[in-house]
Amino acid sequence: MHFIQPELHTRRAFLRRSSRLALAGTALPFALNLAAMGEAAAFDATDYKALVCVFMNGGNDYANTVVNYDDASYNAYSAIRGGGGGQTAGGIALGKADLGATLLNPTTGLPGGMQYALHPSMTGLAGLFNAGRAAVQLNVGPLVAPTTRAGYNSTDRRSNPLPPSLFSHNDQQSIWQSSSPEGSTVGWGGNLGDLALSSNGASQFTCINVSGNAVFLSGDSALQYQIGTENAVKISAVSNGVYGSNAVRDAMRTITQAGSNQVLENEYNKVTARSIGAEAQMTSALTANPSSAAPFTGFVTTGNPLSSQLRMVARIIASRTALGAKRQVFFVSLGGFDLHDSLIANHVTNMKRVSDAMTEFYNATVALGVSDKVTAFTASDFGRTLASNGDGSDHGWGSHHLMVGGAVKGKAFYGVAPPVSVGNGGGPEDQWHVGQGRLLPSTSVDQYAGTMATWFGVNGGEMSGILPNLSRFGGSYPTNLGFMA
Questions:
Q1: In the predicted model, what is the mean pLDDT of residues 48-59?
Q2: Is the peptide bond before 106 cis (omega within 30 degrees of 0)?
Q3: Whole-structure pTM over 0.85, yes or no?
Q4: Residues above pLDDT 90, as percent of the chain
Q5: At what angle do helices 343-368 and 305-318 cross, to 10 degrees?
Q6: How is 16-77 classified by DSSP, letter by letter?
Q7: For the chain, which domains are there?
Q8: Cβ–Cβ under 8 Å, residues 463 and 475
Q9: Rounded to whole angstroms, what are the CA distances from 23 to 19, 103, 125, 266, 402?
Q10: Residue 366: phi, psi to the nearest 5?
């Protein structure tokens, strides 16, 4: 396979684990605290930093998120998407007059006078962009190596490797999060967590998922701590009455935490005890930062699950001292982006949720005094086709994404602005399209992630173990995209 560099992962995992196998024993089926597994950090985390991945499940429509605005580009966009003529809304094209309030005004203009606006419902993020607190990465997506349209069309995959299973939801979600297709067990967020474990007093709170389970936060050693939007998750049988009986609860607590001569039973009980301890520690920390206290009351969570998730992230960040955290990686997500139909009707709700929640979250980090220590960024399965299928758009590849935070070099676009085309005309604009307006990424996920990893504190020697394809890029595909201060 050309997509993976297993020798890097194998060597890295071996070096991490070999010195502690005698203490750690066999891998546990479920663990919340790996504090016993020491880790040589790649950086001296004397300050606090956090990365927050905001994942849009289903494949977000890039063309109605970051919308072409200058007359030439808008007119081409509208024609392809079935606009009503005269720059009015029609088909799956937004009307130009509706974009004025979300027009993005970068410090440095784009070549050819190209302009962009955000979806009309994204006033919050447009405001952060224009205030210098957000930026846009143009046309980013999974790449194994720099790829051209000719390479995409080639049958020689050894010389022109492509990400496997392009346009597949499950595989592309996994590739975005882990550089590997569905079935991967290690994500790049978890790999960052591996390096941060020894910097944190309680290593189980390094990688935190507020939306369920995702490979993004799974590392070789770091595991994701899963939490609800209101409270830490308890083990019901040892926390509440069982069948209405506190005696049964107490018996379960004793059975599941007592020492045993049976190796597997003993390890299971140790894990249970650590789980109970982790829940107690998290609950205690969150009690000091209830959702009813400022700045968490700024989140409008009614009808917005993403806002509820990011409020919990803000509460955990506020609790960082009590949790002993210096470096943390978070994952939140929102579904409903697979809009093959009803794009205009449904996309507006999703984009408003994303914009409102990320704006509320940024404002909370300002109130907490950590806005320059926390960076949130968007990701999704893939972009979608620029061409309409009648009432929606189909699976694509590259997309536009946003980075938000005080450390982001905002009010700017990064990457190459793609020409507005379906990519079938035989002209030079075809180089960034693979048909129906599917963008061929001009920036790889590895470059995007590597830029944030560098800010997070990862040194160059560790980068290849976190992002296995990054070493294939350079020159006109810089490994640091420059959007982090």
A1: 98
A2: no
A3: yes
A4: 76
A5: 20
A6: HHHTTHHHH-SPPSS-S--TTS----SS---S-EEEEEEEETT---STTTEEE-SHHHHHHH
A7: 49-230+298-472 (3.40.720), 235-290 (no CATH)
A8: no
A9: 9, 57, 48, 15, 43
A10: -65, -50
